[in-house]
Amino acid sequence: DTGVSQDPRHKITKRGQNVTFRCDPISEHNRLYWYRQTLGQGPEFLTYFQNEAQLEKSRLLSDRFSAERPKGSFSTLEIQRTEQGDSAMYLCASSYGGQPQHFGDGTRLSIL
Amino acid sequence: GENVEQHPSTLSVQEGDSAVIKCTYSDSASNYFPWYKQELGKRPQLIIDIRSNVGEKKDQRIAVTLNKTAKHFSLHITETQPEDSAVYFCAATNSGYALNFGKGTSLLVTP
Fold first, then answer.
1. Residue A75 CA to chain centroid, in angstroms?
2. B91 in A contact zone (CB under 8 Å)
3. Residue A45 neighbours by CB under 8 Å, 6+ apart
4. For chain A, which terminal residue's Cβ has fewer other Cβ atoms within 10 angstroms, N or C?
5. A-to-B residue pairs, Cβ atoms closer than 8 angstroms
6. Mutant choice from A9, A24, A103 vs B, greatest count of B C-beta within 10 A
7. What is the pLDDT of residues B56-77, one digit of tens each?
8. How many secondary structure helices (H) and strands (E) does chain B include?
9. Helices (DSSP H) in chain B: which residue ranges?
10. How far is CA B24 from the centre of its chain?
11. Is the CB of residue B68 less than 8 Å from the CB of residue B51?
12. Nearest-by-CA chain A residue for B96
């Protein structure tokens, strides 16, 4: 399968802990995106990379969130000091240039 | 920022009937409008998209129409099948990267 891959699929953690998610985009896709989706809502844009450069961050991305894409390949999204409101599905997508975005299966985060 | 509204929130049709989902957007500079289908617990999958220089696009049983003047676009599914049952999301963007999604339409196709 050469689609977008995300790990882990599920993450349960206690409030206040740090968590990190990983996304492997489709090979040769130079753009990578992170979205957050809560129950009954559409995905909300968080941030976007072109190659290794983070070019845009949503206001939704508080200081507790950080994303990286070293070497322009996989990306990580870290949430520090997790809060109840961080519970959501975190989706990663990739594209080649302005071509359509292809999503991964997401990481479901549950905060206890 | 861009605001996308989607209607209806739920839609139930009988197998073989047509289904129409409508979206409106607020930013007249938006120029790309994709539609995604999301089955329970699965990833959003692109089913069709349209750019602002085109008024209509069709792919087998699925079509999308765009009215730039009125700032609305619609998804049309003909000859619906039970496997079309899913949540459908419309989206719009003027940036080319940040997709702004509607809240989704839960489509149920009953045999």
1. 8
2. yes
3. A33, A34, A35, A58, A60, B97, B98, B99, B100
4. N
5. 55
6. A103
7. 999 999 999 999 999 999 999 9
8. 0, 11
9. none
10. 10
11. no
12. A98
Indicate whether A100 pLDDT > 80: yes
Amino acid letter, B45: Q
B24 has a chain A CB within 8 A of its CB: no
Top-confidence residue, B95 or A104: A104
Would the CB atoms of B46 and A58 count as touching at under 8 Å?
no
Chain centre to alpha carbon of residue A53: 15
- In angstroms, what separates the C-alpha of A89 from chain B's closest C-alpha? 10
Is A104 in CB contact (< 8 Å) with chain B? Answer: yes
Beta strand A10-13 pairing with A107-111: parallel
pLDDT digits (tens, 9 = 90+) for A13-46: 999 999 999 999 999 899 999 999 999 899 999 9
**Which own/partner pairs from B22-26 qualify as long-range (CB within 8 Å, at least 24 positions apart)?**
B22/B72, B22/B73, B22/B74, B23/B72, B23/B73, B23/B74, B23/B75, B23/B90, B23/B92, B23/B102, B24/B70, B24/B71, B24/B72, B25/B71, B25/B72, B25/B73, B25/B92, B25/B100, B26/B2, B26/B71
Q: Band of the pLDDT at A109, cuts 50, 70, 90? A: very high
B49 contacts: CB under 8 Å, gap ≥ 6: A100, B32, B33, B34, B35, B57, B64
